[in-house]
Amino acid sequence: MEHPGAPKMRTKDVSVYYGDKKAIDQVTIDIPAEYVTAFIGPSGCGKSTFLRTLNRMNDTIPSARVEGTIELDGDDVYASSMDVVQLRARVGMVFQKPNPFPKSIYDNVAYGPSIHGLAPTKADLDQIVEKSLQRAGLWNEVKDRLQESGTALSGGQQQRLCIARAIAVDPEVILMDEPCSALDPIATAKIEELIDELQGRYAIVIVTHSMQQAARVSQRTAFFHLGEMVEYGPTDAIFTTPQEERTKDYITGRYG
Ligand SMILES: Nc1ncnc2c1ncn2[C@@H]1O[C@H](COP(=O)(O)OP(=O)(O)O)[C@@H](O)[C@H]1O
Ligand SMILES: [Mg+2]
């Protein structure tokens, strides 16, 4: 365990290539444990690519190559000794499109804790499922229908189920890649409320193309442009007193 106040994750000079094409250029950033960090920037600037380096999701893309260092509590995420399955439990991920397993609501949440051996008995597992669904703000809506399919829920409920699934394995970091982009405004507001409640318990990194959303949910914002991280700081400061010309242009809507 690192000393209090140490960043949860740190990247140093991280570059990502798809074949010969450089998609991320030498990004160095500390991800705090206690805050929500937003990644903003125009489409195609590399937000998702960089987010995926944090739990080695890019490993699943054959042409992708990562340079530089990424640490989680001081451990090298790309070390050959790193157990990637374990890493992805510690650094969970929620995607743009809700992707529940075609299984029951209960099994969606119970699967992770089962394979990671977190629940010795059925009663323990029941408790993890209930607690995770509660934390994800979904328990009251599903407690009487836990055996129904997760895919039968509404889009917003499915996304909260995916968040419950990530929470169930007791993660340290939750990565969210535009988690509301497939949702209506009411479902979006619920997810934003939920992110607010989860802040402090988990380090959260959210990619969003909505500056309003970044301003509402995050305490730290990083602005990306053409594969570079142009500027990073307290969210208020990024939106009110940006230091870089390119950040100014983006937040005033000159390109988007
Ligand atoms: N799987 C992939 N293979 C090749 N190029 C990719 C892949 N994913 C993303 N890219 C390219 O990398 C760049 C950054 O993309 P991405 O990380 O998806 O940006 P953002 O999330 O900011 O919209 C883009 O030029 C995109 O076309
Ligand atoms: Mg993206």
Write a structural description.
The chain has a six-stranded mixed sheet, sandwiched between helices. Strands 2-1-4-5 form a four-stranded antiparallel sheet, covered by helices on one side. The chain is α/β, with parallel strands linked by helices. Helix 3 runs parallel beside helix 6, helix 4 crosses helix 6 and helix 6 runs parallel beside helix 7. It holds the Pfam family ABC_tran. Keywords: ATP-binding, Nucleotide-binding, Phosphate transport, Transport. GO terms for molecular function: ATP binding; ATP hydrolysis activity; phosphate transmembrane transporter activity.
Q: How would you summarize the topology of this molecule?
A:
Elements: E1 9-18, E2 21-31, E3 36-40, H1 47-53, E4 64-72, E5 75-76, H2 84-90, E6 91-94, H3 105-115, H4 122-135, H5 139-142, H6 155-167, E7 173-177, H7 185-198, E8 203-207, H8 211-217, E9 220-225, E10 228-234, H9 235-240, H10 245-251
Parallel strand pairs: 3-8, 3-9, 6-7, 7-8
Antiparallel strand pairs: 1-2, 1-4, 4-5, 9-10
Helix pairs in contact: 3-4, 3-6, 4-6, 6-7
Bound molecules: adenosine-5'-diphosphate and magnesium ion (MG).
Adenosine-5'-diphosphate (ADP) is lined by residues 18, 23, 41, 43-49, 61, 63.
CATH superfamily: P-loop containing nucleotide triphosphate hydrolases
Q: What letter string, H or E per element, gives the SSE order?
A: EEEHEEHEHHHHEHEHEEHH
The distinct bound ligands, ions and cofactors come out as: adenosine-5'-diphosphate, magnesium ion
The CATH class assignment is Alpha Beta
* Shape category: globular
Q: How large is the count of helical segments?
A: 10
Strand order of the largest sheet: 6-7-8-3-9-10
GO molecular function, one term: ATP binding
Organism: Erythrobacter litoralis (strain HTCC2594)
Pfam families: ABC_tran (PF00005)
InterPro entries: AAA+_ATPase, ABC_transporter-like_ATP-bd, ABC_transporter-like_CS, P-loop_NTPase, PstB-like
